[in-house]
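Work Package 3 (structural annotation) set out to generate three-dimensional models for the target panel prioritized at the project kickoff. During this period the team completed the workflow that converts sequence records into discrete structure tokens, so that structures can be stored uniformly alongside our sequence database. As a representative example, we reproduce one entry of 284 residues exactly as it appears in the project archive.
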Amino acid sequence: MGREFDYDWLVIGSGFGGSVSALRLAEKGYRVGVLECGRRYRDQDFAKSAWNLRRYFWMPRLGLRGIFRVTAFKDVLIVSGSGVGGGSLGYANTLYRARPAFFTDPQWEDLADWERELEPHYDAAERMLGVTTYEDEGPADQLLREYGEEIGVGETFQPTRVGTFFGEPGREVDDPYFGGEGPQRSGCVHCGSCMIGCRYGAKNTLVKKRSAPTSCSPSAGSADPSRVCPIASGTWSERTRSRSRRSPPPTTAATSPSRSQSHRVSIPIPTPMSRWSPMVEAAI
């Protein structure tokens, strides 16, 4: 008699990669679980300024449980997201297409007409994220335009493509993107706090869009994946540590609500990897 599993697929991380992967799997009829180390944020939960360290940075050992994890390496500093929605909660809200030089790079130019190949995928991503052009110009934009003209590249200045709902500032309306299926939205108030976390419901984060974990599959916030290993032929066992007393990871009927809980999921493992037991410390 086979084991009964909670999910067919388990996705670690709920950002741009994890949310979209979970959505597509769920659309195909799979049972999908999403694990995220950070918690769920309502609009009013975001920090009002970057000086509110507890709500802005993710450093649990120091009591900071915000939306940005900062990881320092020898030659680079990595900033990543922590919270249901991942990096979309605090990214700069700019969504560009690659420049022509990218598609014609000698490393891959001969493999395909990449601009043509990727165009429908850019179209789909822009539709899902509600990409639009920011038409206003503030003091910083004007300075940038003047500087471009001064150094002889003024013609390259152009408005920014952003993922923002520009309705009537501050006015809440039904979801304008997917026929009312999504949450209500409010028009951008031009506060400039995109990277701190939008407190007004105007920023098109993954939590607000169709790719949101809450709209496609069960999702656990404050669950820190710590170990993944095979428990039988063709399956993995996954262990998480709860990061919050209020938001523990999901339990199965066979587990008790302890600090560290094991969840069985039906995930295929290629035969050559049947003895592979990697440690995934502090993933996402």
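The first strand starts at residue 9 and ends at 12.
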